[in-house]
Amino acid sequence: MPEWTTEQEEAIKARGCNLLVAAAAGSGKTAVLVERIIRLISDENNPVDVDKLLVVTFTNAAAAEMKERVGIAINKALKEKPLSRHLYRQNTLLNKASIMTLHSFCLEIVRENFYFLGIDPNFRIIDETEGELLRFDVLEEVMEKYYAQSEENDFFIKLMDAYGGAKDDSNIKELILNLYEFSQSNPYPEKWLKEAENNFTTTDWFKEILKDIRLELSALRSLLVQACALAQSPGGPLLYLDTLQEELALLDDLIAAGKISWERLYDSFSQVSFARLPSIKKKDGVDPEIQEQVKKIRDRVKTKLNEIQEKHFSRTPQELMADLELLQPYLQMLVQLVKDFSKAYREAKAKRNLVDFNDLEHYCLAVLEDENIGKKIREKYVQVLVDEYQDINDVQETILKLVTPEHSLFMVGDIKQSIYRFRLAKPELFLEKYQSFSPAETSLNRRIDLAKNFRCRQEIVDGINYLFRQIMTPEVGELSYDEKAALIYGANYPAYDQQVTIDNCIEVHLLEKKLESELVENNSPSEREAFIIGQRIKELINQGYPVYDTKLDTYRPLTYRDIVVLLRSPKGTAENYLEYFHRLGIPVYAELGSGYFKATEVGVMLSLLQIIDNPRQDMPLVSVLRSPIVGLSIEELSQIRLHLEKATFYEALVKTSEQETGELGIKARNFLEQLDDWRTMARQGNLADLIWTLYRETGYFDYVGAMPGGNQRQANLRALHDRARQYEATSFRGLHSFLRFIERLAENHRDLEPAKALGESENVVRIMSIHKSKGLEFPVVFVAGLGQQFNMVDTRKDVLIHKDLGLGPVFIDPEKRIKYPTIAKLALETKIKQETLAEEMRILYVALTRAREKLILVGSLNNLEKNVDDWYRVMDLASETLPAYELAQAKCYLDWLGPALIRHEQSYPLRQLIGKEDDPQSIKDKSCWQIQTYREGVSIEKDSRESITQEILEQIKDLQPVEVNPELQQAITQRLNWRYPYQNVVTKGAKITVTEIKNKFQALAEEEQGYSSEYRLTKRPVFLQRYQGLSPQEKGSALHLVLQHLDLNLAEQEEYLQDFLDSLVKREIMTAEQKETINLDQLLQFLTSSLGKRMRKAGKVKREIPFSLGLPAAEIYPDLEGTTETIFLQGVIDCLWWEEDGWILLDYKSDQVKETEIDQVVKKYEVQINLYTRAVEEILQQPVKERYLYLFSLGRTVKI
Q1: For the segment 754-782, what is each residue's pLDDT rounded down to a tens digit?
Q2: What is the pLDDT of residues 903-925, one digit of tens each?
Q3: Could you write out the three-class secondary structure of 79-109?
Q4: Res. 286 pLDDT band, cuts 50 70 90
Q5: 46 to each of 40, 41, 42, 476, how far by Cα in Å?
Q6: Quick one: DSSP state of residue 438?
Q7: Terminal CA-to-CA distance of the chain, rounded, Å?
Q8: What b/e string do you get for 610-646 counting C-beta neighbours within 10 Å, with b at 16 or more?
């Protein structure tokens, strides 16, 4: 029998009440929960069957583990009481016991009551990715319907105009999906949407912001008090005192006004002004350092007050509220879009017989709210036990209330470890109960705190308590880290061997981000952090750092599997750790969360699948032919292309197989035969079998296994096979739809995580996100990237969403094209920032509490010395907690850790940076810290040839001559003095179009004449501009399209022309909108003109002829005179026909031209026609005898 603490025993045996167990990290909450279940089912006086308990866990793995532990405990009890029929019964009932996730419970309820809900009992849970793609498709359909039925002045178009993206409507789509997700986390989504819409103009937004402003004003007052104290100190600028006290009184007035109303505060801010400080002379005996310090404090207060005034009080309260009234219709349209999408998505799922997790929760809620069914389900359970209660949302809370018998809810969790707000978890639910439940034994709503930590060593417990006592406050951390919240050391680590001296102090490594020295390789901060951590790992491994093994019940040397590196977000950073750890010979594994589609082996197989679906895709086909699957060389690919230069590469390959008799022909024929077999299999069989057949018949699976990293590569290919099998288990089928699915993932910037090629027991260092580490523990933990800025992107969007406050948009004036934040957005921005900071503080707590024996913190900062100087400002604080205002200004974890650490007596290395080595105000705390700073960077040696001795570095730093090998002197000088010989062509494009050349010469001509035609207006979003009709360029393209496909023999017949235009639309060569721009009269006038007749009579007519031509660079860029560079010219000639002695070149123009402007038009296009002429004569080696422009708007032929 384990020894339970008093608090644990109380949590296990308490009955007849709703019980909240606030269990700190490492306090054994899972063990307590399991023991409570065992005691309930084995109680001799009042035994409970195990299937009468509803045990809700956060993950399926946790549910399986808990069920297993209960089973072990029952079997153990049976050994003590082998004749207990009740225990035998529990063993049998365990298999159907309700120990499951909340979603599994909801699924069970829904399946049992499908008839009540009116849904098909054979429904399937939609896959996350499948659901995301289905949502995109449904939303696309909803948006298209609105576009089709909306007029220019409809609020839908106004909404798109105001809040749509510059190029498309992706911003609005993202907003609709986010609003939908927020509504679904509420028990009654439609009600939440309606309230968000209605409350927009009725919520007291000022009240939401005032609290934050009062906090800022109080902090500024404290700064001025500090300035006053400095002014009165020996050597202080006493002449400043009167001014400072006046400003202090001003701040008092502002604080008092802020306690009354927004209007009073607005009036007070309108009267804010600052007097000039009196001048101080040398004879006044003022210490310049103190004087400057007072000035800096005052300037800081002034700057911040001006910022508050500019942000919140630049407009009257009436104006702020008027903005909301103007925006109300926009929000009504937005909410209606969400409702329409919700309905369409629900219908799309029903059509496919699908449900998602949101549906499960809401269906379950509907069942439980039925009086009869809900009562039966509630009577089924004696008690409901919930693990990780801090991570539930409003819907889940409502479900638990409905299913729980009176005074029978057992909840266990830790508000300090609630880190899933991004999944719309609501930690406030736990916090409300924590603050309202009583610790009294007789209370019907009781709270028990489990603070004793059985995981961490004393040094780690003391360090965590030291930090969080200072930084976790109700204002910023949403919780006070008091005695109830603090960890209590409860682990029982045996003493080390007397011959071994181990220092388990928490280590802190602080790096300078920007290095001034040019002597050190300019690696990124994360690279330098990775190198330092790698070196420290090698040191710990080499010294045989002892860790306690609970299974062996003894100490053993540290292994790589005992170590974890925790990052806030591994994406984009973990790759540096992998590289440098490999360089240091450290085995490592990182869950990158992306990069699957970038893997070469996956790309090759996807290319093969693409050409099996459609072989007429050049890039995938060439990729496969060049890959080891076929193994063609570049020369062989060139030979294939030469067989058919203008056809698809597949057609060229077929031609090669027919004409080549050598080895290339054999390879082509063999591959085409295989490809034909695979295409037949793709049509007749299933996708997963096809993929495995490809692996087997190509040998590619075995091939990649022999490459470096072969295990990972093969795991990626196996994952592709598994994903194909999973895909075909959905409502989608076939190779084409699977490839479209992959394409949609890429379009939406989604990637999949590379397959896991390592087991849990592999001896490697693990790199993972802090979120993934929750629930785990490691002997040695590195927490890195502590200087990385918090992600505040949610506060910078045009429309903010909050689960309680609703919507907060910016105000956009579509006419003036200006935008600024509304009072609602400012309120939500403040609230979201507060919640984000509280979440980040809890994430930091989770990270630090993963360590059992050794904790090492690593971070980088810009201007480390300045940051340390800023941290030092808190040294004279009387209170243990840091000021709430300072905590709320944090941009990264070090903004919290730094000020807390510098107050510790062991912060000498930090204080040394700013010349404050001895400070009597430092805190004497039992926590133990080892702090190391890196101001000169880290020398990351790649090999012995690149290493530089410290002595040489010191000589260079002191500007002393360094002895250099004479043999190398000339080579060094030559390299340092080298200049790129073609610098003058670096900025010139190697490829240019005829239009670009025309525009270039036109611009030069305009410049010579002293004017420019360039004038740009701010454009509306591109996707909305189609409502203004086609642009002149688009109309011209439509005309060219008609002339390109026209049958010249029938062209003068008006009836043919009308039918021809209809056929172009039907064949989707042009759109109906393009067709409407074609003027048949103008077209007939051209075709029946003398020039048109000449064209139609010609035997050889070429239309829309693309060409490429090499020109001497100096012809385009005069400043390149004398170079041999060639510019690649590309263009398209409208029409060309052959007569007896030469070509006739025609270029038709749809520009709107007046009779008086013909000479200008000729001059404008003369360069273009000259280039066309040159291209024809040089490429075809035949003369151009005549050149014409045809101006459709005038019906005129102009000879050039």
Answers
A1: 656 555 568 999 999 999 999 899 999 99
A2: 999 998 998 888 887 766 778 88
A3: HHCCCCHHHHHHHHHHHHCEEEEHHHHHHHH
A4: confident
A5: 8, 8, 8, 46
A6: B
A7: 104
A8: bbbbebebeebbbbbbbbebbebeeebbebbbebbee
